[in-house]
Amino acid sequence: MKTLPLAGSEQEDRLNRAFMALSDPLRRRIVARLAQGDATVNELAEPFSVTVQAVSKHLQVLEAAGLVTRRKEAQRRPCHLNTSAMGPLAAWIDSYRLMAEERFQRLDELLESQEKEEKSS
Of 15, 83, 90, 112, whose CA is between 20 and 30 Å from 74? Predict the structure, then answer.
């Protein structure tokens, strides 16, 4: 069995914070919106039936996880999706996907060999 990539508690803590942040449907929708481009808190709150304060609290969770950053532009404070933070998440998920694919491949090979044995008997 392969060892999965999780080198130390700092990396594990970052993954935990990111997955926890993404566990909320509204936060996932905010991330999806920010994937289209930067937006202010007011712009992010528009399509949702929640207050600007609630969206701001969700953004704080996303910021703490390193998924979102804010910067100041004159009077605006646009939020920006930190796409580089998605890399470790994708790598972690991909390691499990690859492991599952290898197992299915071995199962397919085993079933094929059993089928050949049954036909030759």
Answer: 83
